[in-house]
Specification:
Structural class of chain B: alpha+beta
Radius of gyration of chain A: 21 Å
Structural class of chain A: mainly alpha
Oligomer: heterodimer
Shape of chain B: elongated
Number of strands of chain A: 0
Order of helices and strands of chain B: EHEHHHHEHEHHHHHHHHH
Number of helices of chain B: 15
Radius of gyration of chain B: 43 Å
Distance between the termini of chain A: 39 Å
Number of domains of chain B: 2
Largest interface: A-B, 11 and 11 residues
Helix content of chain B: 40-55%
Number of helices of chain A: 15
Strand content of chain A: under 5%
C-alpha cells in the first residue's frame, strides 16, 4: 500500500514537472527549453547505454561473477528505448540550438568544411540509425535473456556471446556519434578527437552507478538475497576504475588542447572556464573524481552498501553536472539554474523513477535460466 | 632423535577438508598454524585468522610520496632552479606537471606493491626455509593440501599433534626437522666471493672498453647522430631557395632589436645617441672598445698600436680634431658598417654596445684634448 502511495506522489511530481516544462518554452524562450531537453535526453540515454554496454561487456568477456546481477543492467538498459521518442522529438531543436543548420554559419571555412557531416537530413538519418541499432541490441541481449527465464535454453548464451563483439563495434561508433552530433556540434567549429571516448567514459560510469543503486535497492527489498559482498565489491571496483578512466581522458583532452593552444580548439574551453563556469569545472573535478576516488580507495569501502549508495548517487549527479558543463555554456550566459531546470529535473526524474520501478518487475530478479547462474552465485573474491 | 622438530604437517586431499580441519586444530594446537596449498584457496585468510595485509597502506603512502616527489622536482627544476619558458606558458604550469606526477606515483606504487610484498613481507628469496626440506613439498605443489603447526622456537608435542591432525582428517603426517643453525660464514667462502666479484668487474670493464672502442657506433646509440634538424648555414631542399636558415618574416623584428635603417654616413649624422652618459654606460663602452676597437685604434684611440707597424695599415686617429667634429651618428654608422679597411662590427656589437662605444670615444677625445677649464679650481690652486 505504501508502495502505491509513493508511486502516486512520484506521478504527481511528474505531472507538475510536465506543466513547468511546457511553460518553459513560452516564458523563458525556446533555446532554454531545448537545451534542457537535450541535457535530460542525454543524461537518461547515457545511463541506459552504459547499462547496455555493461551487459554486452559481460557477454564478450564471459564474466561469471556478474551473471546473478545481469538482470539489473538489462532492465535499466530499457531507458535507451524510453529515450528513443525523446531523441526523435529533440530533432526539433536543430534549428534553435545548432548553428550549422543556418546557411550563414557555413561561410566560416572551418564549419563549412564539416557541412558534409553536419546537415539536417544526414543528422536525422544518423539519429534514427543509432536508435535502430540500440533497439536491435536490446532485442538480442535483453529480450533473449528474459525469454531464457522460461525456456532455460543455453543457446541464448552462445547467441549473445557471438553478437556481443559486433555490438562493441556498433557501440563504439554510435556513442561517438552521440558525442559528436548532440554535444560537440553545438559548437561546430570545435575539434577534439578524444571527445567520444570522454563521453563514453561518463556513459559507462553512469551505467555502473545506476546499476549499483538498483542492485542495492533490490537487495534492501530482499529480492537479491544471494548477492554477497564479493559481488558488490566488484561493482565498487569497476566504478573505482572508471572514475580514474574518466578523469584520465578528461584531463588528457584538456591538457593537449591547453598545450597546443590552437584557436579552433581552445575557445571551447575558454567559454567553459569564463566566469562561474571555471569554479563549476573545479567542482566537477571534485565530485566526479577526488571525492569518490578517495572514498573508494580502501578495500572495505568497495563492498560496503552504505558507502556505495552515496558514491553511486554522487557519480550520477556528477555525470549530470558534466553534461550541464558541456551543454549549457552555448546559451552564452553563466550557469543557469531556475524554475525551468527544476521542472525538467522534476519531470524526467519522476518519470524515470516511475519507469524504473515498473522495469524492476520485468522478468525474474536474476537470470534464472542462465546455466552459469550457479557459478556466478558461488563467486568469492 | 637429536634434532628438534620444526613443524608437524598434515596432508589433506581437498581444500575443503583442509578448511574444515582448521578450527579443531586451531583451538587445541600450540604453535603457529600455516597452510600450504598448490593454489590460493578462498576463505583461507579468514579460517587461519590472518591479519589484513599492510601492502595496501604501503602502496598508498609510497604512491603519495612518488606524486609529491615528482611535483616538487618539477616545481624546483622548471620554476625555480632553471626557469625555462615553454610555448609561452607560465613557469608553474600544473597542467604540464600532472603526467609526470601520475607516472611517478604509479612507478613508486608498483615497486612498493611488488617488491614490498616479495622482499619485505614474504622475506624472499629464502633458501634456508625448513619447509623446503619437507618430503611432501613436491606433492603439495601438485595435488595435496597441507596444514602445518610450526614450533616458532618452542618444543612441539609431536605425538599429540599427529593425533590431533589425524583426528581432524589428515591422511598423512610428516614431521619436518629443524635445520641446523647456520654457522659463521667461512673465510674461504668470503675469499671466493670477493675474487669472483673482482674478476667479474675487470671482465666487464675490459669488455665495455673494447666494445666501445671497436664498435663506437652501435645501432641504437647511433640513432642520436642522425637527426633531422638543420645546422646553421647548411643547405636544405625543403625550401625553394635552398637555404636552411630562414630570414625573419617580412615586417617583423626580433625581440629587443631595431632594424638598421640608415643608408649612408651622412644620413646617420642626424641620429642621436639614445643612451644616457652614465658610469655604467661608459664601463660597457670601455669593455667593448678594449675588446674590439683597441686592437687597431690603440688603447688611447690615437691609431697607434704595434699591429699597425707590422701590417703597414693606418687606422683612423679617433682623438683627432676631425673626429671630434664627427657627429655621434657618424661614428655609430662606421662601427656598424665599417669604413675603408675596417670591417663592419654589427654582428659583434649590439646597438647598445655601439652607442656605449661612441660615448667612450668621446671620453677618450676629451681626455687627450683636455682644456684648462677641465681642471677644477681647487686642483689648479
Amino acid at each position: 500500500m505504501n508502495d502505491s502511495k509513493t508511486g502516486k506522489i512520484v506521478a504527481a511530481g511528474a505531472v507538475a514537472g510536465l506543466v513547468g516544462l511546457a511553460a518553459t518554452g513560452f516564458l523563458s524562450g525556446w533555446d532554454r527549453f531545448w537545451v534542457n531537453w537535450i541535457q535530460w535526453f542525454l543524461f537518461v540515454l547515457t545511463i541506459g547505454l552504459g547499462c547496455l554496454f555493461l551487459v554486452a561487456l559481460e557477454h564478450v568477456v564471459g564474466a561469471k561473477w556478474s551473471v546473478p546481477l545481469r538482470r539489473i543492467p538489462e532492465r535499466l538498459s530499457g531507458l535507451t528505448l524510453l529515450m528513443a521518442p525523446v531523441g526523435l522529438l529533440a530533432l526539433l531543436s536543430l534549428p534553435v540550438l545548432y548553428p550549422w543548420m543556418h546557411p550563414e554559419s557555413l561561410k566560416d571555412p572551418v564549419v563549412g568544411g564539416k557541412a558534409v557531416w553536419l546537415n539536417g537530413w544526414f543528422f536525422a538519418i544518423r539519429v534514427v540509425a543509432c536508435i535502430g541499432l540500440w533497439i536491435l541490441a536490446y532485442a538480442v541481449f535483453v529480450r533473449g535473456s528474459i525469454r531464457q527465464d522460461n525456456d532455460k535454453d543455453p543457446k541464448f548464451n552462445v547467441r549473445a556471446r557471438r553478437f556481443a563483439p559486433l555490438f562493441m563495434v556498433i557501440f563504439g561508433i554510435t556513442i561517438t556519434i552521440v558525442a559528436f552530433d548532440w554535444i560537440s556540434s553545438l559548437e561546430p567549429a570545435w575539434y577534439s578527437d578524444v571527445f567520444g571516448v570522454y563521453v563514453f567514459a561518463g556513459t559507462f560510469l553512469a551505467g555502473l552507478a545506476a546499476t549499483t543503486l538498483a542492485v542495492l535497492y533490490l537487495k534492501r527489498c530482499n529480492r537479491l538475497p544471494d548477492i554477497g559482498p564479493s559481488h558488490l565489491y566488484n561493482l565498487g571496483g569497476f566504478m573505482f576504475a572508471f572514475i580514474v578512466f574518466w578523469s584520465y581522458i578528461g584531463f588528457a583532452q584538456y591538457m593537449l588542447i591547453w598545450y597546443a593552444n590552437l584557436p579552433e580548439e581552445v575557445f571551447w574551453y575558454k567559454e567553459r572556464l569564463d566566469g562561474l563556469w571555471g569554479p563549476l569545472l573545479l567542482g566537477l573535478a571534485v565530485v566526479h573524481f577526488f571525492v569518490p576516488f578517495v572514498i573508494l580507495i580502501p578495500r572495505t569501502a568497495k563492498g560496503e552498501p552504505k558507502r556505495l549508495v552515496w558514491i553511486a548517487g554522487l557519480i550520477l549527479a556528477a555525470h549530470w553536472l558534466d553534461l550541464y558543463w558541456m551543454i549549457f555554456p552555448i546559451l552564452g550566459k553563466g550557469p543557469l539554474f531556475g524554475w525551468p531546470e527544476l521542472s525538467f529535473a522534476l519531470f524526467f526524474l519522476c518519470a524515470g523513477i516511475l519507469w524504473a520501478r515498473r522495469a524492476m518487475n520485468r522478468g525474474a530478479d536474476m537470470p534464472v535460466g542462465d546455466p552459469f547462474l550457479r557459478e556466478g552465485l558461488e563467486f568469492r573474491l | 632423535m637429536s634434532k628438534q622438530p620444526y613443524s608437524v604437517l598434515g596432508l589433506f586431499d581437498s581444500p575443503q577438508q583442509l578448511l574444515d580441519a582448521i578450527p579443531a586444530v586451531k583451538t587445541h594446537a600450540r604453535g603457529r598454524l600455516e597452510a600450504y596449498t598448490p593454489y590460493p584457496v578462498h576463505g583461507m585468510d579468514e579460517a587461519l585468522g590472518l591479519r589484513k595485509s599492510p601492502v595496501g597502506g604501503m602502496v598508498f603512502v609510497m604512491g603519495l610520496i612518488g606524486a609529491l616527489a615528482a611535483l616538487g622536482f618539477e616545481l624546483w627544476t622548471a620554476g625555480i632552479d632553471y626557469p625555462t619558458l615553454t610555448a609561452g606558458k607560465p613557469y608553474f604550469s600544473w597542467e604540464a606537471f600532472i603526467p609526470i606526477l601520475f607516472e611517478s606515483m604509479v612507478l613508486f606504487a608498483c615497486f612498493t606493491s611488488g617488491l614490498g610484498m616479495l622482499l619485505l613481507l614474504n622475506r624472499l628469496p629464502s633458501f634456508r626455509d625448513p619447509m623446503l626440506r619437507s618430503k611432501s613439498m613436491p606433492r603439495i605443489t601438485r595435488d595435496k593440501f597441507a596444514l602445518a603447526v610450526e614450533s616458532q622456537g618452542r618444543p612441539l608435542d609431536v605425538d599429540a599433534l599427529s593425533a590431533l591432525l589425524r583426528k581432524a582428517g589428515a591422511q598423512e603426517i610428516e614431521v619436518v626437522e629443524q635445520p641446523e643453525a647456520p654457522g659463521p660464514v667461512s673465510p674461504h667462502f668470503l675469499m671466493r666471493s670477493a675474487l669472483t666479484i673482482a674478476v667479474g668487474c675487470i671482465a666487464a670493464g675490459y669488455l665495455t672498453y673494447w666494445g666501445v672502442k671497436l664498435f663506437p657506433v652501435v645501432a641504437p646509440i647511433s640513432h642520436m647522430l642522425d637527426q633531422p634538424r638543420l645546422d646553421p648555414q647548411r643547405e636544405s631542399n625543403y625550401f625553394q631557395d635552398g637555404f636552411g636558415m630562414r630570414l625573419p618574416v617580412a615586417g617583423t623584428v626580433a625581440r629587443g632589436h631595431m632594424p638598421f635603417a640608415v643608408a649612408s654616413q651622412e644620413e646617420a649624422a642626424r641620429l642621436a645617441n639614445p643612451l644616457p652618459r652614465t658610469e655604467e654606460t661608459l664601463k660597457r663602452g670601455k669593455q667593448a672598445f678594449s675588446t674590439y676597437c683597441s686592437v687597431c685604434h690603440g688603447i688611447l684611440g690615437n691609431g697607434q698600436t704595434s699591429l699597425t707597424a707590422a701590417y703597414g695599415a693606418k687606422p683612423a686617429n679617433l682623438v683627432s680634431r676631425q673626429m671630434q667634429d664627427y657627429e655621434d651618428g657618424k661614428i655609430y654608422y662606421v662601427i656598424a658598417k665599417g669604413k675603408n679597411a675596417m670591417p663592419p662590427y654589427a654582428a659583434d656589437l649590439s646597438e647598445e654596445e655601439r652607442w656605449s662605444v661612441v660615448h667612450y670615444v668621446r671620453v677618450l677625445q676629451r681626455a687627450l684634448n683636455a682644456k684648462d677649464t677641465d681642471i677644477s679650481k681647487e686642483t689648479s690652486k
